[in-house]
């Protein structure tokens, strides 16, 4: 269809085209033949032709034409570049029309141009890039920023400016910097606008933000203020107040003018414009005040070009050329550098032996029955080599380092962030793909390692629309009369938390009061209506209610909604206003002291280990003392009694046997320390048992429940059911209970009578249940940590503001007062009684027993090493006395046993000393008795009676 329309324009000149084509072909053939005759493949032609296609009378085109002409002069005056070959640029006006742009490109294809600078428009670029691919002529655009002009689809299309992909990434990071979540995009509805907004949508999604509304405007010149007003009226009814404007200058100024008329440039609004606005501000003389008034507070992006001596010199030269009536914008600088890029690439092309030659396209010749004279267009044979040189170019231009990345984009993309204020504008920061947002030029960061941390992202203060210096909230409730639909569960139990007022759609309860108190703290009104959810016969599924937010039925959910993982995946929750978590409730029984209460401080395992260690330590001490201590010797029966008596008497520190050996004393000291700890623990535990009321339950917590096969109760609609299934409890064991009364009945019956062994529920419900049910208690620890919050759609700003309000309620005490109003109840008389704590188990004393066991082991080891040493000496002595080297095994065993059982000399000396002490004491006693008897006899003799 495109060539069909072109036929009308080209048919009138068909004969002239044929003549031109024949002449060009002859010239080309002559050049090829002369090259062949000279035998020098590196000879350069006198002239090399390059095309340029853009809109001359546009904001960008006016400055681009001057910049290209000046660049051509500079290239031709430079003796190093092209080395005598003159660069000629042929201009073609596209008039911002895709059709005329294509026609202009086709005209260039009939000439000997080796490259084309342009097009300016992304729409035109999409059309003529197919021609460039077919005829292998590179197109270098200094203004087409459409990110979908892919280097894979259009390999002969090179962008010598920055892609909108980076510009939209910069806008997304600005939005993230100010913590906005939703934006509205107003754009020109063509390839440039649609694809730019699509790139913005992707960039925002990466920041967990989104475009909430896209308002496209027709790209035709027939758009009126009324059309724009219809679009902006719809925008004004939206929730978001952050607006991104991506359009052409004429339409962009119309949108800002209408927005100013509608009051949409006032306080609370945020307007962010792409670089079309800075292009006008930079290249036009000071705009009239009425136009400047329509854009006060707007944030604008501008392609960043580093400051340099060459740039300042060219700017001074520009002012002289234009007389100050036409400013220099970034696109003019890119157009100037594009000419130098082409010149450097052509110079490298000639240095590599490239020649300018063209060949016929067989595909075009095969088209029959056409009057378009497509055969006049030919393929540039040196196109692949020239394209390669273009991509490998590396020089410093007015825009800074000019080099392509592997993705065929210019390196180091960066933008200035501009704030329109008064009669001008002010730069508030920079954005670069390397360092993000900063108040320093991007060049200062290239020598440092990249650091995109949030603390390094900075911008200067901004004056927003309405002359407001405070950051706008970025959203409001839509002024369309619509109220928020807040879903509220219809509970049939625990109505203190949420309950519906009969005959109305109003609700009351703890959760409702917290929500209303938080809403009253917000600096804006929140029009809302409560929407009941549930059948009124049983508690509804809270997970199903939360999912209705994503379906659009509810704008939020208020109630006793637990914040759990599967719900946070689909909605956002506020700050928790009540602590929650699953606990186990079970029946209990009182424990009295009884006749066997003295056995309860220790577990059966503990009692067994204590008994074994008493006997073990007694045996160890007997082994260590047997050879040297008479008190541990004697007949076997006496020794056995000694071991038992010694072991038991250490429990009361009443043992009378003295230890003589060092090893025995060491073992005894450690054992007495263990006994001291055991006695102290036993005494403390027994005292507690006999003086404090004890409650007992066979269930100790969730782990003991998992080990049994008994049924477990849960509240209807609670997430407890899913949680219990996830931790491995079969669904067949779970029993749904709908009210506190059913809790009490099921617990009292127990598993044997069709009830449940325990109930698992959230702590707030359980605390309310136990306030008037004194036969049950919480057992074990809370095994999940969560809270209750209000649910809203993903990235809802209301969730953030309500979280702040809930924190305020908590800090000023209002949250506690609301809790006391609804949930304060009289406590049971047994509240101070505790469920029986675990008995003292072996694990509590394992360290002590380990130390004692190790001490006994090493003492026995040392002792047996000594015995073995004596055994070896005794064996050698027997061999010498008998004169035989071989001794029977039984004899050696007898020798070993005799050494173990024989009495040591040390023991003899000790016993002798004790016998001497006893004999001395006996003699003293006898002497005293003798003296007493002689005195009595002397008193009784007749000689002493008188004279």
From TrEMBL:
Signal sequence coordinates: 1-34
InterPro entries recorded: ANF_lig-bd_rcpt, GABAb_receptor_plant_PBP1, Glu/Gly-bd, GPCR_3, Ionotropic_Glu_rcpt, Iontro_rcpt_C, Iontropic_Glu_rcpt_pln, Peripla_BP_I
Keywords tagged on the record: Glycoprotein, Ion channel, Ion transport, Ligand-gated ion channel, Membrane, Receptor, Signal, Transmembrane, Transmembrane helix, Transport
Compositional bias ranges of the Polar residues kind: 938-947
Every Ionotropic glutamate receptor C-terminal domain range: 485-825
Domain of life: Eukaryota
Positions of transmembrane segments: 606-624, 666-690, 845-865
Xref: Gene3D superfamilies: 1.10.287.70, 3.40.50.2300, Periplasmic binding protein-like II
Major place of residence: membrane
The keyword Methyltransferase is annotated on this UniProt entry: no
Function, as annotated: Glutamate-gated receptor that probably acts as non-selective cation channel.
Similarity-based family: Belongs to the glutamate-gated ion channel (TC 1.A.10.1) family.
PANTHER family, per database record: IONOTROPIC GLUTAMATE RECEPTOR
Protein name: Glutamate receptor
Organism this protein belongs to: Datura stramonium (Jimsonweed)
């Amino acid at each position: 269809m495109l060539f069909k329309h072109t036929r009308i324009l080209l048919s009138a000149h068909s004969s002239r085209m044929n003549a031109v084509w024949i002449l060009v072909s002859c010239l080309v053939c002559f050049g090829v033949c002369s090259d062949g005759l000279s035998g020098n493949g590196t000879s350069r032609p006198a002239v090399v032709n390059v095309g340029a296609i853009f809109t001359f009378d546009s904001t960008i085109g006016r400055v681009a034409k001057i910049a290209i002409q000046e660049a051509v002069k500079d290239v031709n005056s430079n003796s190093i570049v092209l080395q005598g070959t003159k660069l000629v640029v042929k201009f073609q006006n596209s008039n911002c029309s895709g059709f005329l742009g294509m026609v202009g490109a086709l005209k260039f294809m009939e000439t000997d141009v080796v490259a084309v600078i342009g097009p300016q428009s992304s729409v035109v670029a999409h059309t003529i890039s197919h021609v460039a691919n077919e005829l292998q002529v590179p197109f270098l655009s200094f203004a087409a920023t459409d990110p979908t002009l892919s280097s894979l689809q259009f390999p002969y299309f090179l962008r010598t400016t920055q892609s909108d992909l980076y510009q939209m990434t910069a806008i997304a990071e600005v939005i993230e910097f100010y913590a906005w979540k939703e934006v509205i995009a107003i754009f020109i509805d063509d390839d440039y606008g649609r694809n730019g907004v699509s790139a913005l949508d992707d960039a925002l999604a990466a920041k967990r933000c989104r475009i909430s509304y896209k308002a496209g405007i027709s790209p035709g010149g027939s758009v009126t203020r009324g059309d724009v007003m219809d679009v902006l009226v719809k925008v004004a009814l939206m929730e978001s107040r952050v607006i991104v404007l991506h359009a052409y200058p004429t339409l962009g100024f119309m949108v800002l003018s209408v927005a100013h008329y509608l009051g949409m440039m006032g306080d609370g609004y945020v307007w962010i414009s792409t670089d079309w606005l800075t292009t006008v501000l930079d290249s036009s003389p000071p705009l009239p005040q009425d136009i400047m008034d329509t854009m006060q507070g707007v944030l604008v992006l501008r392609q960043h070009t580093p400051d340099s001596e060459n740039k300042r010199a060219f700017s001074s030269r520009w002012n002289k050329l234009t007389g100050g009536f036409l400013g220099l914008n970034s696109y003019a600088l890119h157009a100037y550098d594009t000419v130098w890029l082409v010149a450097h690439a052509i110079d490298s092309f000639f240095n590599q032996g490239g020649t300018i030659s063209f060949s016929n396209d067989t595909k075009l010749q095969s088209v029959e029955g056409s009057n378009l004279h497509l055969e006049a267009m030919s393929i540039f044979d040196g196109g692949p080599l020239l394209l390669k040189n273009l991509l490998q170019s590396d020089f410093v231009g007015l825009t800074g380092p000019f080099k392509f990345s592997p993705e065929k984009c210019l390196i180091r993309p960066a933008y200035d962030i501009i704030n329109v204020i008064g009669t001008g504008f002010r730069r508030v920061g920079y954005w670069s793909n390397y360092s993000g947002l900063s108040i320093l030029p991007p060049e200062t960061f290239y020598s440092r390692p990249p650091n995109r941390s949030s603390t390094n992202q900075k911008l200067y203060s901004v004056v927003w629309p309405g002359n407001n210096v405070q950051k706008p909230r970025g959203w409001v409730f839509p002024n369309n009369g619509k109220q928020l639909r807040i879903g509220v569960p219809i509970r049939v139990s625990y109505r203190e938390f949420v309950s519906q007022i009969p005959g109305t759609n109003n609700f009351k309860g703890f959760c409702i009061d917290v929500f209303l108190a938080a809403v009253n703290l917000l600096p804006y009104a929140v029009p809302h209506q409560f929407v009941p959810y549930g059948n009124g016969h049983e508690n509804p599924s809270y997970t199903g209610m939360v999912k209705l937010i994503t379906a659009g039925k509810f704008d939020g959910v208020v109630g006793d909604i637990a914040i759990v993982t599967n719900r946070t995946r689909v909605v956002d929750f506020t700050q928790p206003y009540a602590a929650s978590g699953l606990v186990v409730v079970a029946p209990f029984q009182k424990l009295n002291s009884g006749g066997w209460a003295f056995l309860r401080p220790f577990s059966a395992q503990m009692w067994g280990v204590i008994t074994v260690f008493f006997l073990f330590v007694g045996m160890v001490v007997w082994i260590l003392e047997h050879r040297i201590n008479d008190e541990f010797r004697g007949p076997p029966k006496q020794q056995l009694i000694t071991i038992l008596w010694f072991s038991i008497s250490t429990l009361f520190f009443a043992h009378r046997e003295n230890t003589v050996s060092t090893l025995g004393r060491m073992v005894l000291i450690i054992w007495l320390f263990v006994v001291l700890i055991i006695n102290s623990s036993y005494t403390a535990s027994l005292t507690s048992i006999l003086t404090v009321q004890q409650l007992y339950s066979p269930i100790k917590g969730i782990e003991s429940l998992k080990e049994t096969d008994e049924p477990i109760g849960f509240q209807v609609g609670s997430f407890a059911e899913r949680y219990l299934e996830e931790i491995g409890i079969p669904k067949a064991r779970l029993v749904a209970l709908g009210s506190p009364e059913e809790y009490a009945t099921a617990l009292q019956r127990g598993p044997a009578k069709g009830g449940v062994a325990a109930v698992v529920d959230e702590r707030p419900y359980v605390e309310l249940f136990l306030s008037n049910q004194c036969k049950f208690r919480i057992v074990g620890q809370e095994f999940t940590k969560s809270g209750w919050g209000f649910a809203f759609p993903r990235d809802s700003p209301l969730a953030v503001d309500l979280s702040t309000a809930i924190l305020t309620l908590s800090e000023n005490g209002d949250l506690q007062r609301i809790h006391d109003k609804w949930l304060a109840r009289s406590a049971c008389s047994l509240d101070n009684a505790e469920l029986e704590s675990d008995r003292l188990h072996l694990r509590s004393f394992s360290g002590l027993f380990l130390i004692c066991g190790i001490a006994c082991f090493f003492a026995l080891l040392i002792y047996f090493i000594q015995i073995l040493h004596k055994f070896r000496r005794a064996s050698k002595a027997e061999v010498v006395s008998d004169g035989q080297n071989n001794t029977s095994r039984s004899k050696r065993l007898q020798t070993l046993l005799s050494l173990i059982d024989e009495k040591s000399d040390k023991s003899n000396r000790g016993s002798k000393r004790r016998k001497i002490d006893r004999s001395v004491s006996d003699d003293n006693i006898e002497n005293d008795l003798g003296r007493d008897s002689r005195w009595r006899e002397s008193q009784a003799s007749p000689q002493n009676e008188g004279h």
